[in-house]
Amino acid sequence: MRRRRGLSARLKLALSYAGFLLVAGALLLAVVWWFLLRYVPDNSQGLLGISPNRYLLVRTFAPAAAAAMAFLLVFGLAGGWILAGRMLRPLTLITDAARTAGRGSLSHRIRMEGRQDEFRELSDAFDSMLEQLESHVAEQQRFAANASHELRTPLAISRTLLDVARKDPGQDRGELIERLYAVNTRAIDLTEALLLLSRGDRGNFTRESVDLSLVAEEAAETLLPLAEQHRITLDVTGGAARTSGSAELLLRMTTNLVQNAVVHNLPAGGTVTVHTQADGGTSVLRVENTGRVLPEDLVPTLTEPFRRGTDRVRTDEHAGVGLGLAIVHSIVRAHDGTLALAPRPAGGLVATVRLPAAPP
Fold first, then answer.
1. What is the pLDDT of residues 101-150, one digit of tens each?
2. Which of 21, 44, 90, 286 could be disulfide-bonded to 119 (CB atoms 3.0-4.6 Å)?
């Protein structure tokens, strides 16, 4: 939006300072007149017959007062210009940093020195915003690169299979179709996961009252065959925990957590416990599973897209695409909640989701 150019803030402040000094000088002259000169007799004898009269005092005082007012005007403009420049210098630094960021350089920081004041608070807030923005842009770039790589892989495999089939017409068609079907299914699953992750990040969904205990039971019922296949005991405990959000997304969030707990578990004889409860103004969903001991530095990275956690136990058929916990984190964030991951001392993981409780 183009605007007509007006006076600079520095000039406005300088004029304000000068105007303030002029007004103060005029008030001082008015005080002198009101409390001094008006009591001087206006006659030929003056005060007590020895002092000058009012006319002579005014003739003598007026030029000096006019010179003083002119000096105040010049002094106010010059001093105001210098003071305004010193006061507005932090804004100049912030403006330069904003222009630099607008040109695509997000690594620049102001790091304003000096004691804490309003300008330093604004500078620190701007630096914090740039840091978060740089981190977000870098995360998006990594996500785009990883997504491109993950989507290219099944397409490259499909092309290789088709090239082999074209060069070898006698190859078993049934085996080729099965392998192409598996690769295509993986590509579709990845695309749907990316769309769901994007939908969760946007947060444009209709909110309704959802009971997390019912969602947990539905997710457990759906994944019970998978748990039995892995010889994992799956339990759902706790009580009602109502929140406000999308039932579809919350079901996907819970399903991802439970599936993640089942797949990344002990080879046999493991357990998965899903617990729901209302805790004051929050609704809590906790998924706890057994497994191998996880390194402390690995757990915070599990919510990053395409992070599969190579130190975790999993089967090749359920290796996934590395978006399970990333989708969970995105859905939790879209519902104004928090996701906490903590390793169990005996091995395994505890995932705790806290969402705002639904209003009564």
1. 888 788 888 887 777 777 788 888 888 888 888 887 877 776 676 667 66
2. 90
Q: What is the pLDDT of residues 145-183, one digit of tens each?
A: 666 766 776 778 788 878 877 887 776 778 778 888 877
Q: Tokens 């010049």 appear where?
A: 74
How many whole angstroms separate alpha carbon 351 and alpha carbon 289? 9
Residue 107 CB contacts under 8 Å (≥ 6 apart), including other chains? 134
d(CA 284, CA 278): 6
Q: If you average pLDDT over every residue of the chain, what do you get?
A: 80
- 266-322 residue pLDDT tens: 988 999 999 999 988 899 999 999 999 888 888 888 887 666 554 443 444 444 556
- In 3D space, the residue among 96, 93, 105 whose CA is nearest the CA of residue 130 turns out to be 105
- Please identify which residue in the block is written with the tokens 């004691």: 115
* Three-state helix/strand/coil letters over the chain: CCCCCCCCHHHHHHHHHHHHHHHHHHHHHHHHHHHCHHHCCCCCCCHHHCCCCHHHHHHHHHHHHHHHHHHHHHHHHHHHHHHHHHHHHHHHHHHHHHHHHHCCCCCCCCCCCCCCCHHHHHHHHHHHHHHHHHHHHHHHHHHHHHHHHHHHHHHHHHHHHHHHHHHCCCCCHHHHHHHHHHHHHHHHHHHHHHHHHHHHHHCCCCCEEEEHHHHHHHHHHHHHHHHHHCCEEEEEEECCCEEEECHHHHHHHHHHHHHHHHHCCCCCCEEEEEEEEEECCEEEEEEEECCCCCCCCCHHHCCCCCCCCCCCCCCHHHCCCCCHHHHHHHHHHHCCCEEEEEECCCCCEEEEEEEEECCC
With beta carbons less than 8 A apart as the criterion, state whether 259 and 325 touch: no
Query: Which tokens is 221 given?
Result: 């019922």
Residue 258: is its pLDDT beyond 50? yes
Q: Give the residue among 113, 93, 114, 96 at the shortest CA–CA distance from 105.
A: 96
